[in-house]
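note to self: the first set is below, dont mix up w the second
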Amino acid sequence: MSLMPSWLVDIFPSAVDKPTQHDVLASLLFIVFLIVTRMLVKRAVIQRTDLSLEVKRRWLVTLRNIWFVLFVSGLMMIWGRELQTLAVSMVAIAAAIVLATKEMILCMMGSIYRTSTHAFSVGDRIEFNKLKGQVIDTNVLSFTLTESSYASAQQGTVGRVVTIPNSLLLGNPVFNETRLGQFVMHTVHLHVPRDADWQRVEEILLQAGNEAIAGYADELSVHVLEQAQQQVLNSINVEPRVRIDLEDIDAIAFQLQLPVPLGQRAKVEQSILRHYLRICPQSL
């Protein structure tokens, strides 16, 4: 005999039938199972002492996304019959639903694009839509990065946390600075008057570049060898190079290119510019 009032059975007949009761019980057990296993695995990852904080954070983000997919997939399997019935009854308004959820669908497509192309992952340093920073979180709808350096000459280091929807990945390029390791080619720009001793300027810039590279020459050599073997690339030129541009009729533009460690571009650039300013007044 049912314990529920007859009037409630008449109003909600589908809520008291045996298949629905079975689905509700299965859903509750499934959710409890996911919560318990997530807590246990999360605790196990946090207590690992042989993993760095970066690896732990990457594991936790990956596990969270896996559990979200399992949660949605499990409920869809449990309530498959009811969902199928509901889908058939909602065919007439399917177009309206697509329009209403357009941005969410684009975000999910952007997530699929990011995952399938391996554009970036947690811990990578990227430049995206005039923002530079380190990726600290990714999920189905968005990704988060800490703004760690400037993307233009007028904007300094700000350290903000920025959350960006995945839908923007479908229409904007991503520059991954860590895709090929822990070094990146950096360009230092300098303009001098046309009547300046350009050969002396070039000599000073090359000297400053060589002094900067000398501080991490051993790590750079190992990095070049590893990248040549792993990525099947030609050997990267690690010598500083100077390019000269005469587009401006009143000045000579110098571009010093050299490899620098990630996260130290501003430091190396400031060191080179200060080296130039110390020598420039006495030599030019």
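second set (the one i keep forgetting abt)
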Amino acid sequence: MAYPEEQGGVPCGFLRQNSGNSVSLDFEPHTEYRFVEQLEERYKCASCHSVLHNPHQTGCGHRFCQHCILALRELDAVPLCPVDKEVIKSHEVFKDNCCKREVLNLYVYCKNAPGCNAKIILGRYQDHLQQCLFQAVQCSNESCRQPVLRKDLKEHVSADCQFREEKCLYCKKEVVVINLQNHEENVCPEYPVPCPNKCVQMIPRNEVDKHLAVCPEAEQDCPFKHYGCPVKGKPSNLKQHEHSALRDHMLLILEKNFRLEEQISDLYKSLERKESKIQQLAETVKKFEKEFKQFTQLFGKNGNFLSNIQLFWKGRRTNTTPTLIFIKHS
């Protein structure tokens, strides 16, 4: 009985008439198939008893899968047919292409039944699985290992997969869904977090420091910290503190002013010492200026005095003593 193949198949009869088409047909051996009609014995391997894969026929007329006939040769130098114990002679073994075409055109049910009700010729079985909507496939999202039916893959990738990427609702950054909660609670700069001072406001994470500067529940330093008051508290409590610690604050101010006066006094004393030193230096400068002026007048009246001195020292270096002219000073 012929069955029109579903999902883009080719009529069985055509394939049986055209042996050339069988070249591209094949199936996975050692796999359990559900045949539409009961599998005839002539299509079963005489060794493994499964459907024949690349059948070869021996001289005694029995058929074997290609890998089964090779296995028999490897096991025994003189292999025997397991059916009739006849010696299998290599030159009598031939590839049974006629049987192969018949096997490849046997109809089987899709393994994904009852979801998929397709009937496919055995030679197109793998091609069908590459398109079957009920075949389990791997999710395309990186790191996802969950098998998904092909018909559900699109929805899984876009809506269900824990490894898909989605935009953070707050910072709009693309984040893998499985990491989204951690991103929001620990990383996202725009995620609203409670005020550390437990005020009623929720603040974006990156604005917490700015909020703390104006938070009504934030502890602040006493206005008299500059004078040495160590008290901290909320603004409402600091007002009460200012009134209750008025005397203490005044004492701190007086103590601060006393220390400042001492520092000012020390600065005045240091300044007086420096002024005295400056006066001494000024007198020394005047003295040097006076002496320099005298020397200038002396050299002005005796212009060749320096040149005579230079000639004298030059003569000393060359062992010749030039005539040194001394000018009598008035």
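remember for set 2: The longest strand covers residues 107-109.
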